[in-house]
Amino acid sequence: MTPGINAKELLNAMQEISSSKGISQDVIVEAIQEALKKAYFKYSGDDTDSIIRVDFDTQTGDIKMFKLKNVVEEIQDDVFETDPEEAKEQTGQDYKVGDVMEIPIDMSAFQRAAAIQAKNVFKQKLREAEKQIIFDQYNDKIHDIIIGVIEKVEPTHCLIKLNNTYAYLSKSNCLPNESLIPGRQIKVYIEDVDRKAQGAQIVVSRTAPGFVKRLMEQEINEIYEGIVEIKAISRIAGLRTKVAVYSKDINVDPSGACIGPKGSRIQRVISQIGGERIDVVNYSDNPVLFIADALKPANVIGVKLNEGEKTCVAIVPEDQYSLAIGKEAQNVNLAVKLTGWKIDIKTEADAEELNIDYQLVEDVKIMEDAKRRAPKIMVKVPVEEEQKEIPLAVQEESVMTKQK
């Protein structure tokens, strides 16, 4: 046994580490083997390309080390190869070409410093194994919410205690003016799991748009069950969030389902983010309707689109202009992020003066509602030599377009 390493103590340490850290004994044995190899190369002066095998008996704690060489007819590389004659000289045993010669390594020649080196490498390997376990456990939970306990609050961050590790919550990822008190439970959103981090590997947030999305999934049954889908979300953490929702069921009002009677459903989410305002709007594939809804609570009467540049002008009554812009331009900026369109706000008077030709929101809404509710009656029309099925509603729209 290597001086400075007690077999019984090593076995006890292995069992304790395996049970407390959740690291398998195979990983621990591999770490011990790697540690001893590195210590051997450092203090023996042997070529680091040499093949070394470490045998570790998990029942007794006994360790044996061997240097391996392939037995060949003609030696090309004496680091890896030997011939039968040389092999017999070194071991006193007969070898034939194709065998592997095992040269026992005298571990008593190791200095105590080598044992310390082995222990240090072993500790490093265990840390790496622990990090891998944490990574494997939490990597699949990225973009999910977890509940932890506030362990320590620092000026720049706080540590959140999870079951077997810590999560890092920076001050920039905390809600403005929220009180973080050690010992209290807290919901956080996993943004990343960093396998190479020196400290806490799990990076969490309470300001990410995804945090609000996950809270809504938890608190609103229609979203959890898939009846209502969150299509887009934009957020100014601590101040305001806009969420665009959609349902394939034409009988479901998606925004109404999320808000609930007297705002009861959305209030359950708001209460968990420090009273931050949440605007729930209806998503539409039609950009005119989506942009108009995204600017709520302002009443948008018309929209002019420039689809090539993905810019638009939203037309509002005079008394709705400030509401459409919002305090510190929050409303329009969130609408831009939500829709992906650059939005310019103009009043009706501005539109008339600038001769802006725009689509009326109400007209577009009537047309889209009719298309959505139209029965999909399939009829066959000849297309060259094959028959293709086309919805009747699409045919009618095509005829109307031609008549214009």
Structural account:
With 404 residues, the chain is of the alpha+beta class. It folds into five domains: 7-128, N Utilization Substance Protein A, Chain:P, domain 4; 142-207, Beta Barrel (OB fold (Dihydrolipoamide Acetyltransferase, E2P)); 209-282, GMP Synthetase, Chain A, domain 3; 284-371, K homology (KH) domain (GMP Synthetase, Chain A, domain 3, 2-Layer Sandwich); 374-403, no CATH class. The protein has helices spanning 7-21, 25-44, 84-91, 112-138, 209-219, 221-224, 254-259, 264-270, 287-294, 321-325, 330-339, 348-353, 361-373, 392-403; strands at 51-56, 63-71, 81-82, 100-104, 145-153, 157-161, 166-170, 185-193, 202-205, 229-236, 240-246, 277-282, 302-306, 311-316, 342-347, 359-360, 378-383, 386-391. The strands form five sheets. The protein has a five-stranded mixed barrel. Strands 1, 2, 3 and 4 form a four-stranded mixed beta sheet that branches. The model is unreliable at 392-404 (pLDDT under 50).
Mean pLDDT: 86
CATH class of the largest domain: Alpha Beta
Report the major sheet: 5 strands, mixed, barrel
Instruction: Count the DSSP helices.
Output: 14
Q: How many structurally independent domains? A: 5
Low-pLDDT runs? 392-404
Radius of gyration: 35 Å
Spatial separation of the terminal alpha carbons: 95 Å
What CATH architecture of the largest domain do you see?
2-Layer Sandwich
Total beta strand runs: 18
CATH topology of the largest domain: N Utilization Substance Protein A, Chain:P, domain 4
Shape: elongated
Helix content: 25-40%
Structural class by SSE content: alpha+beta
Main sheet strand line-up: 5-6-7-9-8
Strand residues, percent = 25-35%
In CATH, the homologous superfamily of the largest domain goes by the name NusA, N-terminal domain
Protein name: Transcription termination/antitermination protein NusA
Domain K Homology: 237-309, 310-366
Pfam families: KH_NusA_1st (PF13184), KH_NusA_2nd (PF26594), NusA_N (PF08529)
InterPro entries: KH_dom, KH_dom-like_a/b, KH_NusA_2nd, KH_sf_prok-type, NA-bd_OB-fold, NusA_N_sf, S1_domain, TF_NusA
